Amino acid sequence: MAEDSVVVRAGRRLAASATRFGHGLRELAMASPSRFAVLVFLALILLFTALFSLPAASADGTRTPFADALFTAVSTICVTGLSTVDMATHWSPFGHVLVYIGVNVGALGVLTLASILGLVISKRLGLRAKLIAAADTNPLRAHGGPVNEGQAVRLGEVGQLLSTVALSTLVIEAALAILLYPSLLINGVDPVTALWEAPFYSAMAFTNTGFSPNAGGLTPFAHDYFFLTVLMIGVFLGSIGFPVIFTLWRHHFHVRRWSLHAKLTVITTVILFFVGAGAFLLLEYDNPETFGSMDAWDTTFQAFFLSAMTRSGGFSIIDISQLNGSSLVVGSMLMFVGGGSASTAGGIKVTTLAVLALAVWSEAKGRPSVQAFGRRIPSDVQRVALSVVAWGATICAISTITIGQITKAPIEDVLFDVISGFATVGLSTGLTANLPDPAVYVLALTMFMGRVGTVTLAAAVAATNRSQHYSLPVERPIVG
Questions:
Q1: Are 152 and 134 in contact (CB under 8 A)?
Q2: Are 198 and 177 in contact (CB under 8 A)?
Q3: DSSP code, position 354
Q4: 3-class secondary structure, 371
Q5: Cα distances (angstroms) measured from residue 176 to each of 81, 181, 227
Q6: pLDDT at res. 27
Q7: Is residue 319 exposed (0-12), middle (13-18) or buried (19+ Cβ within 10 Å)?
């Protein structure tokens, strides 16, 4: 009887501890969803690091070194696509399944994932969590102020939007897999193997990760334009973001009914797609190591493919290390911009670039406010855009200097891989695979900060939001 009472008391203490832990998680999720999101991503990275370290995850049955396991976990959860090992040959089937699951979990997005987990913990989506979810899915509403309701996702629609995120991911990846399967068969892939590679490629395209399940990468499909076009479509759908997908789903091609965010995202994405392709075509057409050995059609198509992939896709046909230095600079610029907000892409986001470009244009025209499509963009959104660019540039600069000092590698190669990591692109000059462990940890941290987002990271670190009830005297310093 005494032993039974001891067991009962121990069980009660364990249950009480679990209850307190659950209450603590719920309070954290409701009080600071952004900080909770960062902790969720950290927990996922640690979990997948442990799983990738298992002997069963490697093809040869040995334990993967900690630095490589950690880097792969960060690259997978942050849907980056960079790797310090050969992703096709190093991992076992179990390891590839982990990669597939990890990129789909990471693709849900930091705040969206936090909102879903907060919903599971608290049994309901509280007001603050809804506000955070609405902010993540529509950046134009992320920072208060009188904003036209047509530009924002209403709180009542957040649950519907979260459902759209999960459903659209499932439907789009399934459709892409169905389209890719015949091409895999035509290119000599075994029908059973193709049943795995088709959904794997579709997930890597939609999540903008860029991992390839076969040792040859995309080399066997270099001239299969249908296969490559499907990959580009998947990358485009993943990079425009769930808010735009939600808008297109509701309003289709009624452009006037689109939100300002959707208009800016689609227009800026298309412009950068064509500008990037034109730049690569102009700079690489006479390079025998890249486009110089191709005919006119191949050169044009590959220029557009490279433009799409430098926006966050991560797939590559040509050897990135053979690009001219000028092309590496163009690629770095495209990667730094990235894709749409609340998307599987990284970077500072196309809406950030659009807002800054509109601010410059309005200043040149002498307008008192920044306007676009009959709407006024408030000054706080412009300040956030400037902050994102400043913090992104700072992170990339510090990481480039640190890794450059550690490796003594050519700075243009270091800068390209650092921006690729920060913007979660996955293209590499070949530097990442040969990094020493200290540089691996620096680049892993850069990828994490790039995926979590500078604004989210700042919000998670900040203890409170302070309001100021007075105004200081105005004085204008000389600028420019």
A1: yes
A2: yes
A3: H
A4: strand
A5: 19, 9, 10
A6: 60
A7: exposed
Min mean pLDDT across 67-81, 125-139, 262-276 is at: 125-139
Which pLDDT band, with edges at 50, 70 and 90, does 148 fall under?
A: very low
Residue 473 DSSP symbol:
P
**b (16+ CB within 10 A) / e for 162-185:** bebbeebbeebbebbbebbbebbe
Question: Would you mind telling me the total number of residues written for the chain in this entry?
Answer: 480
Burial (0-12, 13-18, 19+ Cβ within 10 Å), 320: buried
Could you tell me which residues are beta bridge partners of residue 91? 58
Could you give the CA distance from residue 208 to residue 264 in angstroms, rounded to a whole number?
Answer: 20
CB atoms within 10 A of CB 227: 21
Structure confidence at residue 164 as a pLDDT band (50, 70, 90): low
Burial track 87-107 (b if 16+ CB lie within 10 A, e otherwise): bbebbbeebbebbbebbbbbb
290 compared with 113, residue with greater pLDDT: 290
Dihedral sign, CA of 448, 449, 452, 453? negative
For the entire predicted model, the pTM comes to 0.83
Q: Which residues lie below 8 Å from residue 226, measured CB to CB, with a gap of 6+? A: 183
